[in-house]
Design the sequence.
C-alpha cells in the first residue's frame, strides 16, 4: 500500500468580492506564503505543485503556466487540475495520490479564482459547462440545477423556506469569527425571505457569493514533528453528462455524495458519521444543498436536516458543527472553494482554527461538489 | 425505422465574456512609471541581483521579494526575432533585452524591414504619445538611432 | 513510485477535421478500442483520468462532457488540464498509491472546433503580452531563430528535420500528414514565422488517445485471462520526470532545451538509465516545430545522429491533436515495445509555449 499522507500547512488569502489590489500571481503568492509559514517550511521543501482554477472565469488559457509566478513552480514539477466546483477538492486528492504513491514526498496544492475579473459574467462562464447543442441554449447556470434539486427536496419533505434560511443565518454567524471569509455580515430569517427570488424556491441569500481568493495546502509523507492532519479517507464519485440522467433513479439528487462518502467512511473506519465526526466542512453552494447533502452524508435521517440546523446541532458550539468557517455560503473563489474546505478541516484537527475552532476536534469530514452533480470526500484526523 | 445518413450537423457558438485583469502591486508601479514619467523600470532582486522587466511578485530565479527599482533601457539588444505572416500584413516580433535588465521583453518591431533584422542589433523603445498605463504605451521597438516617440 | 503496467493503448486516426464526431465521440472511439484490445470490461476500470482543455473545447469543466464517453459515472475521476502525458503521471500515481488496480487515461483535442491561434494568444501574459496580439507561432518563430543563431546553424537543418518527420509520418496510418516530403520541398514552402515554414510546424489536428494502466497483479490476471503469455509482453512505465520553466519567453533562453534535461534526468534516474543514447531503442517527442525536433532530442540527452529510433511515427509533426499529442507519443512507444521492436523507450509530452512544461516517460518491456 501507499505512503501515509498528512497535511502540515494551510494558507488562505483574505477572500473578498474584489481583490483589485493584487494581480493573480500576487494573490496566489499570498496563500502559498501563508501555507509555508503555517508549516514552518521553506519553498525548497516542496517537491511538486498541483494548481487549479477555471480558465473561463479569468479568460486566461494555460493559467497554471502563467500562475507559476505565484505558486513558486519554476523549476519544479507542476500539474494543473481543473474540474469545476470540485477543482479545490480535486487538487487535494491529486496532491494526496501524488504523495501516497511515493512519486513525491511533499506536494503543495494551490487553488485560486478571481471571479471579479469577469465581474457579472460568472454565470456566462458556468453556462458553457453544458452541452452546446441540447442544454446550453436553455440553462441559466449553476442556479437552475440546484433549484430543481431544491424543488424536488422541498416537495418530498415539506421543508419550509425558513428552514433553509437557518443554514445561511448560522453560516454568516460563523463567518464573523473567520477573518478570511468574504461575507461577514449577519442575516435574519426576514432578510433571507425578503431577498430576490432567483429560481423557485431559491432566493438570493440562499445562494453562495462569487469571490476572489486563493488557498494553499501542504501534503507530505514526512511530517516529522510538525502538527499534522492525517488523511484518513479519500474518495469521489462522478456522474452522467446530462442533468436528465443525473437524478434518474437515484435515492437523492446528489447520489454521488452518498457513494463517495460510503467509500471514504470505510477507509476511515467511520460507521456512525453523526457520532464520529467532530466537525464538517461541507461544500454547500446553497442553503437547500446543505440540507439535502447532510442527509446524503448520513449525518441525519432523510428529511431530518431541517431539525439538525433548527435545533442548533450544527452550530459552532453544537454537537456536530457544520462549516465553522462560514462555508461556501460566505466565501466562494471557485477554484479554491473545495480546497478551503480541506484547509479548514485540517486546521480544525490540528487545533489551529483560531476563533472558529471546534473544541477538541479530532476527526473532520470535508466535501467537494461540482460538474453535473459529482462529489469528492476527504476525511482528516488528528490521529494517523 | 430506417434513418438515412445525413451530412454532419453543427451548432455555431461564441463565448463572449469581458475581462479585467489587475496588474497588481509590482505591475502597477511599472505601468505608472511608464505612463506618468516615460520611464522604463526594472525590478532588481535584493538577493541575486537579477533585474526583471516586466516585474513579478517574486524573483523567478531565487524566490526573494524584489522591491528595488532601477532604470532600464530605453535601448537594448534584440535577442531573437520573427515575422508572423499569418495575418493580412506581416508583423515583426522581437525579444528585446533592455540595457540594465536580465530578461527580454516581447514586443512588436517597428520601422525595420524583415531583411534588415538581425539578432544582436541595437533597438530602442518607441513610446506612444498617448498614455493609458498599459504595455501598449510602448508602441514597439525600432532600430536604435530613430525617433523615440511615435506621436 | 513503483512501476505501473500499460495494458493497452488506442488512438484515433488523426485528421485536420472530424466533423462527423463530437470530441466526446472521439474519446469514446479510443476508450472502446482500448477496452476491446485488452479484453478488459468497463466494470474492471477502477478510476479515470482525462486530459482536456476548456478553451479548446469551448466548454468550462470540459471533463464533464466526456464523462459518459469514458464511463466515469459512479467512479472516482479527475482531469489534468494539460497534455495527456502529464495526465498519465496522475493516473500512474493513483495506481501506485494502492487505492486502485486499473486506471483509464484519456486525452482528446479537436482543433477544428475552435480558433487555435486565438486560443494560444489567450495564454500570453494578460498585462504585458496579450494586448500586443502574439500567438503560438510567434513563440515558435522566436525559438527557432534563437536556436539557429545560438548555434550558428543555417535554416537547412530545419528543413532536414521536417523532411524526416514527414517521411516517417507517411507510413503512419494514424498521422494526419501522410505524404513524404524532401528537404528541398520543405524549403520551398512559404514562411509562416521566420525562420519556420508551414511544413516545419505541427498541424492542428482532431484526435484522441487512451491508455489503460494496471498494477502488476491485475496485469498478470488480464494476461492470463486473455490466454496471452503473461510477462513476456508486459510494458511498464518505469520512470517519469516533470519540469516547469518560467512563463515569459524573455525570461528563458529559447535557444536551449530549457528545463527538459531536468525532467529527463528524473525519468532516467528512476528507470536506471545512464546512457540514454545507447540504452534507449525508441524516442517519441512532442515537437511543435522542426526546431523543437532538434532541441528536444538534445534535451533528452540523445546524440544528434544515431541512437534510438527517432520519432518513427513522425512525431507531433505528423499530427497534433491538442492535449492528446503527448499521450500519443507514449502510445507509439508502447506499441513499438509491445511488438518487440526494442526493449526501452522514451516518450515526451509538453504544455505551454515552446516547452514551458515538459513531461518525460521511460517505458520498458519485461
Sequence:
Amino acid at each position: 500500500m501507499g505512503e501515509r499522507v498528512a497535511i502540515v500547512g494551510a494558507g488562505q488569502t483574505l477572500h473578498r468580492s474584489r481583490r483589485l489590489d493584487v494581480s493573480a500571481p500576487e494573490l496566489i503568492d499570498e496563500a502559498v506564503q501563508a501555507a509555508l509559514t503555517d508549516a514552518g517550511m521553506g519553498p525548497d521543501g516542496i517537491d511538486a505543485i498541483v494548481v487549479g482554477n477555471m480558465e473561463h472565469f479569468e479568460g486566461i488559457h494555460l493559467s497554471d503556466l502563467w500562475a507559476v509566478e505565484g505558486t513558486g513552480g519554476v523549476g519544479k514539477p507542476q500539474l494543473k487540475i481543473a474540474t469545476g466546483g470540485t477543482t479545490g477538492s480535486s487538487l487535494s486528492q491529486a496532491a494526496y495520490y501524488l504523495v501516497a504513491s511515493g512519486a513525491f514526498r511533499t506536494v503543495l496544492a494551490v487553488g485560486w479564482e478571481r471571479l471579479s475579473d469577469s465581474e457579472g459574467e460568472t454565470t456566462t462562464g458556468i453556462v458553457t459547462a453544458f452541452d452546446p447543442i441540447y442544454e446550453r441554449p436553455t440553462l441559466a447556470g449553476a442556479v437552475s440545477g440546484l433549484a430543481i434539486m431544491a424543488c424536488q427536496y422541498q416537495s418530498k419533505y415539506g421543508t419550509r423556506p425558513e428552514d433553509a434560511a437557518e443554514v445561511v443565518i448560522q453560516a454568516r454567524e460563523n463567518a464573523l469569527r473567520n477573518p478570511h471569509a468574504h461575507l461577514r455580515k449577519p442575516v435574519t430569517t426576514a432578510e433571507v425571505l425578503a431577498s430576490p427570488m432567483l429560481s423557485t424556491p431559491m432566493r438570493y441569500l440562499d445562494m453562495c457569493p462569487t469571490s476572489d481568493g486563493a488557498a494553499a495546502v501542504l501534503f507530505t509523507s514526512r511530517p516529522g514533528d510538525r502538527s499534522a492532519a492525517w488523511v484518513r479517507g479519500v474518495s469521489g464519485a462522478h456522474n452522467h453528462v446530462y442533468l436528465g440522467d443525473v437524478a434518474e433513479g437515484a435515492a437523492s439528487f446528489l447520489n454521488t455524495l452518498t457513494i463517495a462518502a460510503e467509500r471514504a467512511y470505510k477507509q476511515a473506519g467511520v460507521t456512525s458519521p453523526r457520532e464520529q465526526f467532530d466537525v464538517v466542512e461541507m461544500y454547500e453552494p446553497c442553503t437547500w444543498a446543505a440540507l439535502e447533502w447532510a442527509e446524503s452524508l448520513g449525518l441525519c435521517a432523510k428529511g431530518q436536516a431541517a431539525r439538525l440546523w433548527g435545533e442548533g446541532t450544527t452550530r459552532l458550539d453544537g454537537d456536530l458543527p457544520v462549516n465553522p468557517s462560514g462555508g461556501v455560503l460566505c466565501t466562494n473563489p471557485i477554484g479554491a472553494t473545495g480546497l478551503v474546505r480541506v484547509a479548514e478541516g485540517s486546521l480544525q484537527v490540528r487545533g489551529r482554527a483560531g476563533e472558529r475552532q471546534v473544541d477538541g476536534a479530532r476527526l473532520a469530514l470535508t466535501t467537494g461538489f461540482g460538474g453535473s452533480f459529482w462529489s469528492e470526500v476527504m476525511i482528516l484526523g488528528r490521529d494517523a | 425505422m430506417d434513418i438515412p445518413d445525413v451530412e454532419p450537423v453543427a451548432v455555431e457558438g461564441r463565448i463572449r465574456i469581458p475581462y479585467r485583469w489587475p496588474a497588481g502591486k509590482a505591475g502597477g508601479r511599472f505601468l505608472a512609471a511608464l505612463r506618468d514619467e516615460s520611464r522604463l523600470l526594472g525590478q532588481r532582486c535584493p538577493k541575486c541581483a537579477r533585474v526583471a522587466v516586466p516585474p513579478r511578485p517574486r524573483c523567478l530565479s531565487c524566490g526573494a521579494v524584489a522591491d528595488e527599482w532601477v532604470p532600464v533601457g530605453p535601448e537594448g539588444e534584440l535577442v531573437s526575432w520573427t515575422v508572423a505572416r499569418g495575418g493580412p500584413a506581416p508583423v515583426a516580433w522581437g525579444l528585446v533585452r533592455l540595457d540594465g535588465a536580465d530578461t527580454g521583453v516581447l514586443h512588436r518591431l517597428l520601422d525595420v524591414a524583415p531583411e534588415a533584422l538581425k539578432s544582436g542589433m541595437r533597438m530602442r523603445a518607441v513610446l506612444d504619445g498617448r498614455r493609458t498605463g498599459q504595455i501598449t504605451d510602448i508602441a514597439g521597438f525600432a532600430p536604435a538611432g530613430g525617433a523615440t516617440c511615435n506621436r | 513510485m513503483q512501476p505501473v503496467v500499460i495494458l493497452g493503448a488506442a488512438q484515433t486516426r488523426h485528421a485536420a477535421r472530424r466533423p462527423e464526431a463530437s470530441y466526446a465521440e472521439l474519446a469514446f472511439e479510443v476508450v472502446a478500442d482500448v477496452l476491446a484490445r485488452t479484453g478488459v470490461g468497463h466494470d474492471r476500470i477502477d478510476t479515470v483520468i482525462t486530459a482536456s482543455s476548456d478553451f479548446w473545447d469551448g466548454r468550462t469543466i470540459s471533463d464533464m462532457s466526456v464523462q459518459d464517453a469514458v464511463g466515469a459515472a459512479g467512479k472516482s475521476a479527475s482531469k489534468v488540464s494539460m497534455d495527456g502525458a502529464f495526465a498519465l503521471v496522475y493516473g500512474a500515481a493513483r495506481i501506485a498509491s494502492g487505492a486502485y488496480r486499473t486506471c483509464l487515461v484519456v486525452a482528446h483535442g479537436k482543433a477544428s472546433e475552435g480558433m487555435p491561434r486565438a486560443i494560444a494568444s489567450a495564454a500570453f501574459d494578460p498585462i504585458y503580452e496579450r494586448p500586443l496580439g502574439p500567438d503560438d507561432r510567434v513563440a515558435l518563430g522566436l525559438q527557432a531563430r534563437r536556436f539557429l543563431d545560438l548555434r550558428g546553424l543555417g535554416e537547412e537543418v530545419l528543413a532536414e528535420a521536417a523532411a524526416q518527420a514527414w517521411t516517417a509520418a507517411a507510413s503512419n496510418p494514424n498521422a494526419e500528414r501522410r505524404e513524404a516530403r524532401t528537404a528541398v520541398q520543405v524549403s520551398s514552402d512559404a514562411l509562416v514565422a521566420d525562420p519556420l515554414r508551414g511544413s516545419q510546424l505541427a498541424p492542428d489536428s482532431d484526435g484522441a488517445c487512451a491508455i489503460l494502466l494496471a498494477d502488476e497483479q491485475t496485469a498478470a490476471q488480464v494476461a492470463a485471462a486473455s490466454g496471452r503469455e503473461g510477462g513476456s509482453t508486459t510494458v511498464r512505465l518505469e520512470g517519469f520526470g516533470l519540469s516547469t520553466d518560467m512563463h515569459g519567453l524573455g525570461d528563458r533562453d529559447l535557444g536551449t532545451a530549457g528545463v527538459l534535461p531536468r525532467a529527463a534526468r528524473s525519468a532516467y534516474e528512476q528507470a536506471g538509465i545512464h546512457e540514454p543514447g545507447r540504452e534507449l531503442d525508441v524516442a517519441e517527442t512532442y515537437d511543435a516545430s522542426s526546431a523543437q525536433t532538434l532541441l528536444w532530442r538534445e534535451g533528452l540527452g540523445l546524440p544528434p545522429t544515431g541512437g534510438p529510433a527517432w520519432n518513427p511515427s513522425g512525431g507531433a509533426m505528423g499530427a497534433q491533436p491538442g492535449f492528446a499529442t503527448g499521450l500519443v507519443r507514449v502510445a507509439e512507444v508502447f506499441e513499438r515495445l509491445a511488438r518487440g521492436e526494442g526493449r526501452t523507450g522514451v516518450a515526451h509530452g509538453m504544455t505551454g509555449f515552446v516547452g514551458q512544461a515538459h513531461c518525460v516517460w521511460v517505458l520498458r518491456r519485461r
Summary: The longest strand of chain B covers residues 75-84.
